[in-house]
């Protein structure tokens, strides 16, 4: 067994490595692959006054009964759009019900925009359905343990459902609205002097504040309208046998469609529109919500800004509320690390409030700031930040008030029908404006006024909603303005953080600016860092392509803000989510030096322990070769049981035809090859790779090995230096004399002839006058006088107790140079002894040789 | 004749750990024309870049034929010493530095084998582990020197040509010049760590072949293959095991504050690969039959 193991050590090692790698891969797979779950596609009948069949899918985890999650999709989506989230939640052990909302995809019915009697009632019926399923854990009869989760359209549904149906145990609404009327008709102007408490009272239970009027968010509204028309084209997914959809309204419910057409045509919020939008807004039901609520809002969202989440958070007074922001939203997907953070928050929220597992998620607040780009995903990178509670858009610290350099009063023109207009953002692409030079933000001359602050010496973080105060005069008494805050770098490049702007509709304005009262404009909340050297530019413009302005041309006089207030919030960076990698790095940084030191130590100990003992019988014999065998990896036995000796004072010739195994035996002698069997002893010491006794051997085997870029002299010097032995031992002068190169020894080896290289190589082998000199074809390339000289040198060399082994195929040469010969053929020694004995009676070495190698 | 020999049979004055010192090997390599030319080239590259920027000056940041590329560092190359250095590092990191490191480390053993001098060093005898360790150390030292020359000369040329200006990041962030220099040095350091993978790979190939060109070319080739696989997004998470996966994680140093997560991953992956290759090279060389 042991022999077998040793023979096949390579394969055994290889097998072990493969096994370890496979085991690691398996463990990794097992660790990362979510537990399996099954899915079931369903059609669920819902609704009474507009019955519809919902296209649904139930994800059932391995272990049941389990709490359930009602997972709603966004506007225009289907149950397929949330597959990834559903699978992740099912993997975490939740029964997940996804469905396509009424009016979309393969579900029946019309779009009622989350109306309480339709979409919200549908969701309640889905709760009934879940309560009937055995896989779902129940709190009571007909009351499943369930959470409602969803983004945007689905997020508002979860809020509304929790407001109307107290069976909901937790909700996680994401990037959704508080008041649709406020979101589609934003007005960021506060009545004078009330900027401090923001929305404050009046919001909680009544929906949109009374008298609210704003600027119609035309681009976004149009996009939604178009989505609802999707079914109006050729018959496709719409319910079978259904009458053709009206071209103007598609799958929109008639009342919603009528309201859209009305507000889109006029650009104003009518009472009917207001009533309908309020019914679809969580604002109306927040005080009834008793389910713990995790509100996740996007910072890159020109549709539902951070203020909407803040209003929701303030309105939910009967349940725990936690708020989180991330760098995505309706305009951007957010970064991978953000997504991981949001997913982790969601799962923790559900685990605690549905399963009772884990710590109370509490009400600490996390958000993120874009801080560069990641490489592996070629995407934006975010810095995660946290603080102990939600700070509000007004900030927690006293705000930073920054003066503008030169307050101005300017007259600006509102173009007829709002065209041409600046382009601050495009729906769903708002984040592009964050990049400098992305093509947005071109304010139209004559239509805007701007003031700038001085540049900042230190970086300033804005977390929340900046505000400015301005005065305006208009001949009509009304004005529609767009207030923007640009970050301008030292070279003048301006960026509009997340493309967010503040539309303002002012009424009751005087015609003379002198009579105008100050109006505070609170901009949408942002998370943005102003780098040192940057400054802020406040722009007030009259038109924007995403919004509907007044049709008639008009000129306003604006007293521009003389300062901008920047909300401040203290926070700490989130600990890296890459903890495992950091640990791995520390482990590596310790393990690698320790491993290297360990390997060095082991090598040293093994080096010391190696058998260096002297065989007393051959301690004074320069070379003993015993039973040497060398079988190459391909099975060829180059040397097959060779024995010979070289005694002191001898010049031994190693003879043999090509392929006899001469060179192989010399390579083993130099410690270059591991013998398969047998041994070589030099002065009684066994030769192994790197055996110290090799230092008493000088060799020239298979031609010179010189550094071509150095002179012959430098080659000799550097070679001796590489031995680490004292300079005095080298006998450099003697050796140089033997090489006999004259001045040419100082020229580069590259320029040498073959014979010159050969002589330097012989000199190199003789450096330090080793006791055993091994020369392979030493006369190769030498001319006759040099050969004669070499013969004398070798003879002298051996005369004082040293020994020389010369391998050659020049028989006459060997005959004249050597005292003894070893004749090899086909890996074996076929003759050995004194030259004259080997020659025998024939008189010529050649005859004897040919006879031997036959 | 009889001289006093050590019990292990060594010649007088021979000590295994005194053979082929770092200094000797460093001299052997430094005297090579190829080493000198490579180092000179890297030192001159910043000057060449400067000339290129000067001659083609009108185009810099002017025409936007590659607009939309947020990483268009070339547009910022002339903004100051830090930007210039960053640009020089960026353009050389993907190929030039790879070749240079592969050259210095892939030539270690294969180069000696090619000259035929390997067998004489081993018969000195220089212990095999020591030979490889010293040669690898010298190869890595020359690689580091190349990196240092490129970075240092870029800073110098950038400073003389464009001044000590703040670093302007591709996404619009700005960083004070003094801090920026540290960041740029960090980038150089990170690139150096990732290039250790190439160094290790070249070493393995170097002990596996007697042709220096095969070792150098093989290391560069495998590096490029890894880069190509990394570009195949369809491979998904499988790409995470590629040694070049985090090759551009140094971008994190251009953020404010710096983002280290990806760099930590990159360093871990690089060190693992480098260690693996190095161990492989040592194991292989210890057992190998030297036939060159």
From TrEMBL, chain A:
Taxonomic superkingdom: Bacteria
Keyword set includes ATP-binding: yes
Domain ABC transporter: from-to ranges: 623-851
InterPro entries in alphabetical order: AAA+_ATPase (IPR003593), AB_hydrolase_fold (IPR029058), ABC_transporter-like_ATP-bd (IPR003439), ABC_transporter-like_CS (IPR017871), Galactose-bd-like_sf (IPR008979), P-loop_NTPase (IPR027417), Xaa-Pro-like_dom (IPR000383), Xaa-Pro_dipept_C (IPR013736)
Keyword rRNA-binding attached: no
Disordered: annotated span: 188-211
UniProt xrefs under SMART domains: AAA (SM00382), PepX_C (SM00939)
One of the record's GO molecular function terms: ATP hydrolysis activity
Transmembrane intervals: 12-31, 580-603
Pfam families: ABC_tran, Peptidase_S15, PepX_C
PROSITE patterns named among the record's database cross-references: ABC_TRANSPORTER_1 (PS00211), ABC_TRANSPORTER_2 (PS50893)
Keyword line: ATP-binding, Hydrolase, Membrane, Nucleotide-binding, Transmembrane, Transmembrane helix, Transport
Protein family (similarity comment): Belongs to the ABC transporter superfamily.
Protein name as catalogued: ABC-2 type transport system ATP-binding protein
Organism this protein belongs to: Stackebrandtia albiflava
Lineage: Bacteria, Bacillati, Actinomycetota, Actinomycetes, Glycomycetales
UniProtKB/TrEMBL annotation, chain B:
Cellular component, GO annotation: plasma membrane
Record keyword Lipoprotein present: no
A Pfam family it matches: ABC2_membrane_2
Spans through the membrane: 37-56, 86-110, 131-164, 184-206, 213-235, 263-283
UniProt keyword annotations, A-Z: Membrane, Transmembrane, Transmembrane helix
Annotated signal sequence range: none
GO molecular function per UniProt: ABC-type transporter activity
Name the record gives this protein: ABC-2 type transport system permease protein
Organism: Stackebrandtia albiflava
């Amino acid at each position: 067994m042991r022999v077998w193991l040793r023979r096949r050590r390579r394969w055994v090692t290889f097998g072990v490595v493969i096994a370890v790698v496979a085991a690691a891969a398996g463990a990794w797979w097992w660790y990362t692959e979510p537990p399996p779950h099954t899915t079931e596609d369903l059609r669920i009948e819902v609704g009474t006054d507009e019955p519809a069949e919902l296209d649904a899918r139930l994800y059932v985890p391995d272990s049941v009964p389990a709490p359930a999650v009602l997972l709603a999709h966004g506007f225009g989506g289907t149950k397929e759009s949330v597959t990834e989230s559903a699978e992740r939640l099912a993997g975490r052990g939740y029964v997940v019900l996804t469905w396509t909302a009424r009016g979309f995809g393969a579900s029946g019915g019309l779009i009622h925009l989350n109306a309480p009697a339709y979409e919200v009632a549908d969701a309640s019926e889905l709760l009934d359905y879940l309560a009937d399923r055995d896989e779902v854990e129940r709190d009571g009869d007909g009351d499943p343990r369930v959470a409602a989760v969803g983004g945007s359209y689905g997020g508002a549904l979860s809020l509304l459902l929790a407001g109307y149906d107290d069976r909901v145990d937790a909700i996680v609404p994401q990037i959704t609205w508080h008041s649709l009327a406020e979101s589609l008709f934003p007005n960021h102007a506060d009545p004078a002097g009330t900027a401090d408490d923001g929305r404050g009272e009046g919001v909680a239970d009544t929906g949109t504040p009374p008298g609210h009027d704003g600027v119609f968010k035309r681009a976004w509204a149009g996009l939604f309208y178009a989505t609802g028309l999707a079914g109006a084209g050729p018959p496709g997914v719409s319910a079978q046998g259904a009458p053709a959809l009206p071209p103007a309204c598609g799958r929109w419910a008639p009342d919603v469609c009528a309201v859209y057409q009305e507000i889109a045509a006029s650009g104003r919020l009518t009472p009917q529109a207001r009533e309908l939008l309020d019914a679809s807004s969580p604002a109306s039901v927040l005080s009834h919500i008793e389910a713990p609520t995790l509100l996740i809002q996007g910072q890159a969202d020109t549709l539902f800004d951070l203020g909407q989440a803040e209003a929701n958070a303030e309105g939910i007074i009967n349940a725990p509320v936690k708020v989180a922001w991330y760098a995505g939203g309706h305009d951007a997907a957010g970064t991978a690390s953000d997504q991981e953070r949001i997913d982790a928050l969601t799962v923790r929220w559900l685990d605690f409030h549905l399963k009772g597992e884990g710590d109370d998620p509490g009400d600490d607040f996390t958000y993120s700031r874009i801080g560069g780009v990641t490489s592996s995903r070629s995407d934006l990178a975010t810095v995660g930040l946290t603080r102990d509670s939600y700070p509000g858009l007004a900030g927690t610290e006293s705000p930073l008030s920054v003066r503008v350099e030169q307050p101005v009063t300017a007259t600006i023109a509102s173009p007829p029908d709002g065209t041409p207009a600046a382009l601050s953002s495009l729906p769903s692409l708002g984040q592009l404006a964050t990049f400098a030079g992305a093509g947005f933000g071109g304010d139209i001359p004559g239509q805007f006024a701007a003031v700038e602050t001085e540049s900042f010496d230190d970086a300033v973080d804005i977390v929340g909603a900046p505000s400015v105060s301005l005065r305006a005069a208009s001949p009509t008494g009304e004005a529609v303005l767009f207030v923007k805050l640009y970050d301008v770098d030292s070279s003048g490049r301006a960026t509009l953080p997340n493309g967010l702007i503040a539309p303002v509709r002012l009424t009751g304005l005087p015609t003379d600016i002198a009579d105008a009262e100050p109006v505070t404009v609170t901009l949408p909340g942002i998370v943005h860092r102003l780098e040192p050297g940057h400054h802020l530019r406040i722009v007030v413009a009259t038109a924007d392509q995403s919004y509907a302005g007044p049709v008639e041309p008009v000129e306003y006089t604006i007293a521009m803000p003389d300062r901008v207030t920047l909300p401040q919030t203290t926070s700490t960076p989130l600990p890296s989510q890459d903890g495992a990698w950091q640990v791995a790095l520390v482990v590596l940084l310790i393990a690698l030096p320790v491993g290297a030191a360990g390997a060095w130590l082991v090598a040293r100990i093994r080096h010391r322990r190696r058998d260096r003992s002297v065989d007393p019988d051959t301690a004074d014999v320069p070379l003993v070769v015993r039973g040497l065998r060398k079988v190459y990896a391909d099975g060829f036995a180059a040397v097959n049981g060779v024995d010979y000796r070289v005694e002191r004072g001898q010049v031994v010739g190693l003879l043999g035809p090509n392929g006899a195994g001469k060179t192989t035996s010399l390579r083993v002698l130099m410690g270059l090859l591991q013998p398969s069997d047998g041994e070589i002893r030099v002065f009684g010491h066994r030769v192994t790779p790197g055996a110290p006794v090799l230092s008493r051997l000088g060799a020239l085997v298979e031609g010179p090995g010189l550094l071509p870029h150095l002179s012959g002299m430098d080659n000799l010097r550097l070679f001796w230096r590489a031995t680490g032995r004292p300079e005095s031992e080298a006998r450099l002068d003697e050796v140089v004399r033997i090489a006999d190169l004259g001045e040419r020894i100082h020229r580069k080896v590259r320029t040498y002839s073959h014979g010159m290289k050969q002589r330097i190589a012989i000199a190199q082998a003789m450096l330090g006058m080793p006791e055993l000199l091994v020369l392979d074809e030493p006369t190769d390339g030498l001319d006759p006088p040099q050969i004669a000289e070499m013969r004398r040198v070798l003879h002298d060399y051996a005369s004082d107790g040293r020994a020389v082994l010369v391998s050659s195929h020049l028989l006459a040469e060997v005959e004249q140079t050597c005292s003894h010969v070893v004749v090899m053929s086909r890996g074996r020694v076929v003759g050995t002894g004194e030259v004259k004995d080997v020659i025998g009676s024939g008189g010529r070495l050649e005859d004897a040789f040919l006879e031997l190698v036959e | 004749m009889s001289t006093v020999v050590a019990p292990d049979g060594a010649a007088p004055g021979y000590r295994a750990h005194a053979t082929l010192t770092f200094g000797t090997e460093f001299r052997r390599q430094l005297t090579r024309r190829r080493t000198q030319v490579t180092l000179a080239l890297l030192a001159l590259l910043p000057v060449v870049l400067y000339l290129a920027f000067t001659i083609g000056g009108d185009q810099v940041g002017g025409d936007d034929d590659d607009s939309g590329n947020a990483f268009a560092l070339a547009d910022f190359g002339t903004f100051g010493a830090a930007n210039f250095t960053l640009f020089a590092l960026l353009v050389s990191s993907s190929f030039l530095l790879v070749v240079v490191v592969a050259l210095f480390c892939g030539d270690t053993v294969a180069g000696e084998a090619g000259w035929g001098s390997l067998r004489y060093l081993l018969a000195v005898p220089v212990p095999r582990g020591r030979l490889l360790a010293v040669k690898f150390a010298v190869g890595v030292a020359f690689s580091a020197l190349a990196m240092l020359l490129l970075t240092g000369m870029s800073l110098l040329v950038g400073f003389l040509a464009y001044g000590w200006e703040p670093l302007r990041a591709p996404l619009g962030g700005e960083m004070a010049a003094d801090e920026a220099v540290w960041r740029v040095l960090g980038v150089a350091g990170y690139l150096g760590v990732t290039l250790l993978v190439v160094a290790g790979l070249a070493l393995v190939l170097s002990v596996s072949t007697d042709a220096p060109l095969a070792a150098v070319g093989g290391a560069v080739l495998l590096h490029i293959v890894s880069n190509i696989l990394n570009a195949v997004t369809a491979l998904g998470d499988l790409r995470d095991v590629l040694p070049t996966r985090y090759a551009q994680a140094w971008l994190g140093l251009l953020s404010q504050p710096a983002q280290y997560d990806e760099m930590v991953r990159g360093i871990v992956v690089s060190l693992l690969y480098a260690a693996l290759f190095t161990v492989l090279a040592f194991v292989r060389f210890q057992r190998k039959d030297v036939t060159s």
